[in-house]
Structures are given as structure tokens and as C-alpha cells.
Amino acid sequence: MATNPAPSAPALPVTLADVEAAHQRIAPSIVRTPTLHSRTLSQLTGAEVYLKFENLQFTAAYKERGALNTLMQLDDAARAKGVIAASAGNHAQGLAYHATRLGIPSTIVMPRNTPTVKITQTEGHGATVILEGETFDAAYAHARKLEASNGYSFVHPFDDARIIAGQGTVAVEMLADIPSIDMLVVPIGGGGLISGMATVARAADHPIEVVGVEAELFPSMYNRINGTDYPCGGDTLAEGIAVKEPGGITARMVEALVDDIVLVGERSLEEAVSLLLQIEKTVVEGAGAAGLAALLSHPERFKGRTVGTVLCGGNIDTRLLANVLLRDLARSGRLARLRVRLQDRPGALFNVAKIFHEQGVNIIEVYHQRVFTTLPAKGLITDIECETRDAAHLDRLMVALKASGFEASLVELA
Q1: Given this model, what pLDDT does residue 116 score?
Q2: Which sequence ranges form a coiled-coil region, renumbered to this chain (predicted)?
Q3: Do residues 308 and 330 make contact, with C-beta atoms less than 8 angstroms apart?
């Protein structure tokens, strides 16, 4: 990947002047989110970590910026006819909210399998929602048909110079607040955010390295830039950056302006979401936690640097968030399920529970299994979910159980 484009290289479609003009345009109507130092995350990662809290926007995501910048450049005729987009995520809500605020009709086409909560939220911001097709591609194709037949203005989620300029305003604010930042770590889906932020970074008065982050399951921009052919698909926590095909404009800008792209696994994404809630007391979706996941996964890449990363969205399903937090507790040893083999006789379960009591371990659930087991008829399996202080406390419990003659094992997470 290139550093600064060579003087003879063709001009890129977005310049610093475009981003600065976008910031002037949208600043009165968006939240000026804070960029704050995290002492604890800095200690954990070995970098000086600054977080940009874009999850505090009204619709809980940075996508408002590009959407609003695009809406404000439409002429009166286009405003009167309305705008349309295909999205099941943050772009839909950001566009719907600002279109309604400006008196512009908006239509959002979503796949039929879109979660009800996202449909309701988008309608709540004033958009007309149309459900079409089982995939994003089908919804996108239908939106382009409606654009042509009804004269709507299509607002692309990332592959548009106006969108890119709007998203780049995130970096304008970060560098104004923390001029010492020498590395930006930015999630990549379609590439609009990193293209805009890299435009600002390249024009700074000191070198700023720009590193993109993609989920391992969706390395689409990584493949495009590096000429690789890693598979692209699957159930990722970072659904906001789960893009199979990056934009043409954004791929060109990423190739010219971005220094590196790193990939992060699902476990790192889960850990990052959990840490941000526990340490920063802030709710972040999987895509929004991708920057921190990169710092946790590749500490040697960022050690000693002054890193700015964007918590780009906070729209995560509450049940999914609960699962992520519980899984993190289990991996840290604070929540565990033990499988204990017992003899089927009076007092057996009492004697096990007594050891939990002596070790100060809280029992949450007990699952007693007599029938569906390969043990002899007089044997049984008991699964006990419990809460401990930490991994060392759990180890002490296991030692105590085995010292009392019980056969016990941990039921591991995947």
C-alpha cells in the first residue's frame, strides 16, 4: 500500500477541502462526540489509546455524517422527490433521521430477514421501509429500480464522494482534539470511513499512519488490496463491516492512502465489546469495537504509538450483548459449568454442594442427569453452573473437588 500518492498520480475524488467543507456544513446538526484517553486500555495494549465516541450520535453511529453531507447538497427538485437507500443497518437510520429533519421523504429497502427492531427503528426516524428479497443484493437491486422509476436520489452507504467526505469529518474532530495522534486505527466495511479519515491524515502536519481493520470472516478490502482470495462470509459479530464487495471509489482511495489492513477474529471482537462496556461503561456494536480488537490481537503492531480509534456504532441487539458478556465471563473463569460424576445415592449432591460452599463459590444452576448418559444405571452426571472471583478461584474449586474424590471437568466454550 502506498504512503502519499506520487505527484503524477491521478487526483483522488475526495480532498481535504471537501472534508473540511463537509464539516462546516454538518457540524451544527450532529453531535460533537468526545475523543477521550483510556488509561486502562492503554495499559492493556501498550499503546496510548484515544477513543472517538461516535456511538453517542443520535442514531448511535457515525453514518449520520456522510448521509447528512449528501442530503445537504441535493437541489430543491431532488429534495422534493426524495431519497432512497438499501440498508439494514446504521446507514438506514442515519439517512432516515436527517432526511426527516430536513423535510426530505426517504425510502429504505431492506431484506425480508431484517430484524424487526431495525425496521421499527428506521420507521421511527420517519422513513418508509420496503422489505424486498432475502439478501442485501436483492434489496439493493430493488432500490435502484425504484430510483429509476420514481426519480429518487440514491444515497449509497459508502461508495460516493459526498459520503466519504462526510465520514472524514470524524478525523477532523479527532485531530483537532488530540493533535499528538500518530496512528489511526479504523474499521473497514465498504471503506467510506477509512477513505475519508485517511484523506485528513495525509494532509496533517506530521506523519500519521492509517491502519484498517476487517473481520477475518469478511476480508473483502484486504483481498482487493493485497490480491488474496480469502473466503468471505459467515456469522460475524461485526455485522456492520460484513461487506462482501468494497466500493470502487473507496478501494482506489484505500490503495492510495492506507498503510495497512489487519484482520481480527470473533473472539477478539467479543473481548473488545466486553472490555468497552466494563472499562469505558459504553455500549459498542461488534464493528465499533473492531479497532480495539486489532489492538488486542496485534499488540506488537501498535505498541508505543499514540493511537486514535473510532467507536463507530453502538447498535447491538441486547440479547446478543448479554451473550457476549456471559461468554467473556466464562473465558475469564468468573463463570463456569462443571460436569461432576456422582453415585446415585442420598447425600451425593449435598456433599458436592458443601465443597462449593467451603470454597466460597456461588451455584447458579444445577442440571441433574440420570437417564441420557452412558454411565452405569447407578451413576449420574450433574452439570453445575457457578460464579467464581477469577480463574485462580475456579482452579482451587477443581482441586478441592478432586481431593474429595469427585471426578469433575470443565465444560469448555468453543
Answers
A1: 84
A2: none
A3: no
| Residues sharing a CB contact under 8 Å with residue 148, sequence separation 6 or more, in sequence order | none
Residue 8 predicted with pLDDT over 50: no
- Check residue 342 and give its pLDDT: 86
- pLDDT, tens only, 356-385: 999 999 999 998 765 555 555 556 888 999
Alpha-carbon torsion (2, 289, 285, 165), positive or negative: negative
Give, as one character, the DSSP assignment of residue 126: T
83-151, what's its fold? Rossmann fold (3.40.50)
Assigned CATH for 333-410: 3.30.70.260
Cα Dmax for the chain: 85
Q: What is the dihedral of CA 104, 30, 309, 137, to 10 degrees?
A: -10
Cα 202–chain centre separation: 25
The amino acid sitting at 136 is F
Distance of CA 76 to the CA centre of its chain: 36
User: Once rounded to an integer, what is the mean pLDDT over residues 231-249?
Assistant: 92
Please give the share of the chain, as a percent, with pLDDT higher than 70. 95
Instruction: Enter the C-alpha cell of residue 229.
Output: 482470495
The whole-chain average pLDDT of the chain stands at 92
Mean pLDDT score, 273-290: 96
DSSP one-letter code for 61? B
16-61+173-327: CATH topology is Rossmann fold (3.40.50)
For the chain, first and last CA: distance in Å? 35
CA distances from 254 to 2, 44, 120, 165, 396 (A): 9, 29, 34, 14, 51
The pLDDT of residue 27 is above 70: yes
Cβ atoms of 241 and 187 closer than 8 Å: yes
Distance CA 198, CA 4 (A): 10
Beta bridge partners of 51: 36, 309
pTM of the full predicted structure? 0.88
Phi–psi pair at 191, nearest 5 degrees: 110, 5
Domain ranges of the chain: 16-61+173-327, 83-151, 333-410
Residue 117 in this model has a pLDDT that exceeds 90: no
Q: What are the cell numbers at 163?
A: 459520503
Chain CA centroid to CA 20, Å: 26
pLDDT at 2 over 80: no
DSSP H helical ranges for 286-347:
290-297, 299-302, 318-331
